[in-house]
Amino acid sequence: MHLSAHSHYQAELDAGRFCIQHCPQCQRHVFTPRELCPHCGASGLRWVRAGGLGTVYSTSTIARKVDAGGNYNVALIDLDEGVRMMSRVEGVAPEAVAMGQRVQAHVAHKDGRGLVLFTPVREGGAP
Amino acid sequence: MSRVPSSHLDAAAVNRPLRGRVAIAGAATYGCGESPGMDDMTLLVRAAQAAVADAGLTMQDIDGLATCSVNASMWTMPVIEHLGINPTYVDGTMIGGSSFIAHLLPAMRALEAGQCKAVLVCYGSAQRSASFGRKESVAARRFMDPQPYETPYEPVLPVTAYALAAARHMHEFGTTRTQLAEVAVAARAWAQMNPEAFMRDPLTIEDVLSARPIASPLTVRDCCLVTDGGGAIVLTRADRARDLPKPPVYVLGNATAIWNRQISCMPDLTTTAAAQSGAQAFAMAGLRAADMDMAQVYDAFTINTLLFLEDLGFCAKGEGGAFVQGGGIAPGGRLAVNTNGGGLSCVHPGMYGIFALIEAVRQLRGEAGTRQLGHHRTAVVHGNGGTLSSQSTAVLGTAEAL
After folding, report:
1. Does A55 touch chain B (CB under 8 A)?
2. What is the ipTM of this complex?
3. What pTM did the predictor assign?
4. Smallest CA–CA separation between A59 and chain B, in Å?
5. Contact B167 A59 (CB under 8 A)
């Protein structure tokens, strides 16, 4: 059985693995998951483990009532592989997330489904 | 970061023969603001009826139709049923709020080819008053039009997408919150001269900055209205339009460009596909931004106006903030922008594009009342759809601009 790219991505996440695609023809990484390389049109994209390091490209603090959980962060992260994704940076106040900040991915679970979240990389070395 | 879009189409060469061959012969709105008891279809049909009458035609003269809806994917069929027409040309392309501007070029080709003689472009939405409200609509759209790589992070769409673009614009170019607020304040100043505008109270920069936060850096006053409203225009060949009662508004250029659907897939958040659609529309028209007497741009959020003024060539990339500062796009400023009050203060029933077209028509005809511009020969109308996803630009002009 051939899984859709999205089903494959989600199944890996549910198992705790953050994977993105790589094009064997043009050697570029691809996200969001899909059937054809958006750069060169090749099929047969391969799944590889994402390194997980990235940089905040843009960030917004979403206003939410305190009794609903309070404000939260939504960010766009540029992974070191050269692809961009939407996510959240957690572990700091939402308004403390800054563009250019280095972040590290981890797989969290919500309602039994895996999702990628980020935390800031500590100054001067390992996350 | 991402794929850089590129098209090798020479729009000037391909589309130039259509320049000025088709005109807007009729235009009307209906029920803008709050229309309790109305539904999408009623607003559309009444606007359509008024636009056809404005063109000096009857509904039986309409043999072309372009329309779409946020809620109904097969919307052309009930519209045809309600209007009682039998069109030989039908366009139901749905690319969000820019749709009705994107409907122009295919309609021009159909008119020029003789496939039809009068095309009605129409829209109606009771978004504000409908019982099937925004919350249900958002939930239904998540199912019908999934964005599985964004939804898990709970972005409040569309505003979060525009907030991310605004934050990036501020970061890269030093654009300030005050400059964003200038856009909302200018829109309100125009709205105060438009009896049809929904919000006409005075608005200051301080009011915008201190308004309820939605998604940083945007407050509720950086966001478009939620209103009811219907709008319609009628297109005919230019030679026929010259025999109809109203002065023809010629379509000199039109182009559409789409680079992405999801904001996370946008190659660069500070440059939109308007750079492509604008360049192609201006190339078709043989005109430049500097030749425009006004700009009617899709201001779903304050950042939109800055992005589109830059991408359409009114100023360099990153200089939109300085361009609008000090009342630059308010009445009496350097460029007349969104002279009806725009989506921020006049009307925004889900999709705004048709209303930008109608305001340009009113200005070009000299029918804009106390907000009428002294110079009104040329207009650029720009539509946006999705989350900075689809972009469509039209260049319009009076007989003088031909």
Report:
1. no
2. 0.96
3. 0.97
4. 6
5. yes
